[in-house]
Amino acid sequence: MFSQEVYIARRATLKSNLKKGVLLFPGNGESGMNCKDNWYPFRQDSTFLYYTGINIPDVYFVIDIENDEEILFGNNPTPEEIVWIGAVTPLEELAAKAGIKTVRPLKELASYVQKAQQREAVHYLPPYRPATVVQICQFLNIPVSEVEKKCSVPFIKAVVAQREIKEAIEVEQIHKAVNTTAAMHTYAMQNAVAGKTEKEIAGDLQAIAIGGGGNISFPIILTTNGQYLHNHATENKIKNGNLVLCDCGAETSMGYAGDMTRTFPSAARFTDLQKEVYNIVLYAHNSAIETLEPGVRFKDVHLLAASKLVEGLKGMGLMKGNTDEAVHAGAHTLFFQCGLGHMMGLDVHDMENLGEPYVGYTDSLEKSTVFGLKSLRLGKELQEGFVITVEPGIYFNPFLIDAWKAQNKYADFVNYAAVEKFKDFGGIRIEEDFLITKNGSKLLGNPLAKTVDDVEALKNAI
Amino acid sequence: MFSQEVYIARRATLKSNLKKGVLLFPGNGESGMNCKDNWYPFRQDSTFLYYTGINIPDVYFVIDIENDEEILFGNNPTPEEIVWIGAVTPLEELAAKAGIKTVRPLKELASYVQKAQQREAVHYLPPYRPATVVQICQFLNIPVSEVEKKCSVPFIKAVVAQREIKEAIEVEQIHKAVNTTAAMHTYAMQNAVAGKTEKEIAGDLQAIAIGGGGNISFPIILTTNGQYLHNHATENKIKNGNLVLCDCGAETSMGYAGDMTRTFPSAARFTDLQKEVYNIVLYAHNSAIETLEPGVRFKDVHLLAASKLVEGLKGMGLMKGNTDEAVHAGAHTLFFQCGLGHMMGLDVHDMENLGEPYVGYTDSLEKSTVFGLKSLRLGKELQEGFVITVEPGIYFNPFLIDAWKAQNKYADFVNYAAVEKFKDFGGIRIEEDFLITKNGSKLLGNPLAKTVDDVEALKNAI
C-alpha cells in the first residue's frame, strides 16, 4: 500500500468532484475455476485498489459524501478460520492504513445501502464480474438485466479524470512492472527457438512475472502466428525460420501493469525480408513516439503511424498511390487492423471496464465505427501524466487478404499480386510504454533491444 | 479429445441410468479478472468435458433423453472474428468428434429449454460460477436465489456414479498429470533454498505445469508455514533451517489433475527433530496405503492413519494415554486437523461442485460434523477404479495449541508442556495419488523420493 495520505487525498478529490451521493465500491471476491473453492489467482478491482489500497477479497467500500462517512464492510476471519490460514492483518488495521475510520460487518451492507437509497442516489461503476452483478442486484433490488444500465456516468467520469493522470508514485510502480516485463521479453528472445512449444516459453514468462511479486497483467501472447491479433500460446512447436511475436506484461504486487511487444526470429538472425518489414514497423513506432506530447490527439498519432506504415509498404511494392489518400480511405487496415495504443495503469487496458467512450474519447470526440479506427481504444488529446502504449504493427492476415482481394477492395492502394506472396509471412508488432510529460514523453522501464541489430545481439548473447 | 466412442458410451450410460428428462450441461465461459475481456486462463467445466470433450468457451450441451436428442448449442466465429483469432475448428467438427449430431446457435438455447420445461423436468447440476447462475436463472426463469436449490439430485448421483470410476484412458491421463506434478516437486526440492521467495519458486512450478501442456490444477502451496493448511506462496524469503511444504499439482491439457505434497528442509539435510516428525508422518502414510482396497471405508483408513500419528507423537512425548481412546476422542486433531484424502480426476477435488454428500459419502454414511472429521472429504467405501489422494500430516498450529491449552482440552492425551516447544516447528505433509485396483492400490505417476534419505539425496543431486 501507499501511505495513508495518498488514499485520503484521492478520495477527497473524488468527493469534491462529485459533491453528493453514496458511492459503492465493490471489491472483488475469489473466482472459482472448476468449482467454487478452487480459485484463480485473486485480483482486486482496480478502482477499489486506487481509492483504498486494500488487496483482499470480499470487502466493500462505501462513501456517503454528504454525511462525510467512509465505511469498509467486511469480515475478519473467525478463530477457526485463523487455524486454517494463519494470522492475517485485521480489517481495522487495513482500514487505518487507508485512512478509513469505520469498519462494519459485511452482513450490514445490504441494509446500509438500501437505507441510503431511500434518501439519495447510490452510484456504482459498471460491474464486470457476474458475481458483482448478482450482488448489486441483491443489494439495490434491481433486476439482473438492469444492473449494467443503471451504473453512474458522473461516477465513471470522475474516476476516469483522476485515474488517467498518474501520480509520481504510480509511475514508479509502472516503471517496475515494465522492467519485469522487459525481463520476460529478454527471456523470450533468448529461449523461443525451434523445438520449444509456445506454451513452454509462455509458462517460463509467467514464472518471471510471478517471481517479480505480482503476476501476468494479461494472457501472454507468444506465437508464431502474430498475424492474428488475439492469439495466445498453444502447444505448437516453434520452427526454425519462424517469426515469434511476444506480447506480454507483468503487474506488480500492487496491481500496476506493464505491456510490451517484441517480434524476433526463432533463428539467430532475421531474414532480409523479415528485416525489411520489421524496419517499417520500427519507423512507424519511432515516428509516433516523436510526436507524443500534451495536447496532441492520439487519433492523429495513430493516423501518422498508419501513414508511415503505408510509406514503407509502398517502398516494398505492396501498396501504391497517395499515402494520405490511402490512410484516409482506410487501405492500411489490410495490414494494420487495430489501434496504435491504449491507456495503461492499474489495468493493462486502463479502466477498460469503465468504457472507452469515457477513457479513450470525449463527449465531442466519439469513437469511429469503421474497421480499423473502431479498434483504436484511445483517440483523445494526450495530457501530462497519461501513461500509454505505442504499438504499431504489420499483419499479413490470410483471411483478410483473401476476402478483400475477392472484393478488389482498396484496389487503388493495394498490390494484391505482391501481397499474395506474404500470406505466410506472419505479423510484426513493436510496443513500448510511455509517460506523457510536460514537453513530450518518457519511455517507461529501462530500454530494451529494439533495432534489428540490438535484437539479434541480445538473442545471441547467451 | 478421446475417441468418439468414449463420449457416446458415457452418454449412453448416463441416459440409461436416468431414463427420462432433459439434461442441461452449461459449458464455462471466459472469466474476467479486472475487466470483462482480460481473462483468466479458460477452464472448461469438468462434467462438460467428461461427456463431450469439447474444450472451448461459451457452448452448452443438452440431452433430451426421451426424444433421443443431443444438441450442442454455440456460435461459430464470424468471418470478422476469424480475422482476429485465425482459423478455428468449426463447432460441427467438434460435435462430430464427440459423436453429437446436432449443432444449433446459442440464441436458440433459451427457447429450446423453455419449451422442454413445459413437458418435463429440466435437470442441471449445482452451478458454481456466478455467470452460470445468471444464465440458468434467465433460461429457466428461476430467481437467482433459487437456482442452487433447484439443481437435480438424480442427475448429480448419476454423474458421480460414472465419474468416480476411472476408465483406463483416464488413469493414463492422471498418470501423466502426476508425472508433471512430480517434476514440479523435484524442482521445488532442489531450488527452494534460503534467499528465494516462496513466490519465485511457485512461479517456476507453474511454468513446469504450463510447459506440460495444461496448467496448475489448484493454487500452489509453497510455504515455510506448512502448519497453516490454507496457505499459499507469499513474498516471504525462505530462511535456512526452514521446513518447506510444497503441495501442488499439474493438470493435463485434457483437464486431468495430479496433486502431491512433499515437505523438505531448505538446508541440505533435515534436522534430527524434523526427521523424527517426518518419519511419523511417513509411517502413517505408508500404513494407510497398505490398507487401500475395494470395500474398505476410507473413513477407517483416515482413523488408522490418525492412530499411527498418535503412536508416533506418544513416542516423542507429545501425546499420552491409550491411542484408540485418543483418536476416538479426537485428540489427534490438535496435530492433524484435516482429512486423509479426497477423490481426484478431472478436478483435483474430484466433483467438488457436485457436493461431498454424494461424492465422498452415501445416504447411509453421512459426513461427521465434529472438528477434524468434518474436513474429511471422502469417507465411503473404496471401489475399484477410484482415484484418491493419501495425505496425512502433522501440523503444529500455534493458534490451536494456545486455544486448546487454555481450555486444557484433551488434557488426558496431550502433553501441552512438551507441545509448547513445537509452536514454531511448522507442518509436515506427505501426499501421493492412488488408483484403487481389484486387490489393492497402485501408485500413480513414477515414484518420487519420499524417505528422508531419498529426499536429501534428490535435493542435493544438483
Automatic annotation (TrEMBL), chains A, B:
It comes from the Bacteria. Residues 2-133 form the Aminopeptidase P N-terminal domain. Coiled coil: none annotated. Its cofactor is Mn(2+). Its EC number is 3.4.11.9. SMART domains: AMP_N. The keyword Protease applies. Keywords: Aminopeptidase, Hydrolase, Manganese, Metal-binding, Protease. The keyword Membrane does not apply. It catalyses: Release of any N-terminal amino acid, including proline, that is linked to proline, even from a dipeptide or tripeptide. Pfam families: AMP_N, Peptidase_M24. GO terms for molecular function: aminopeptidase activity. InterPro entries: Aminopep_P_N, Creatin/AminoP/Spt16_N, Creatinase/aminopeptidase-like, Pept_M24, X-Pro_dipept-like. PANTHER family: XAA-PRO AMINOPEPTIDASE 3. Belongs to the peptidase M24B family. This is Xaa-Pro aminopeptidase. It comes from Galbibacter pacificus.
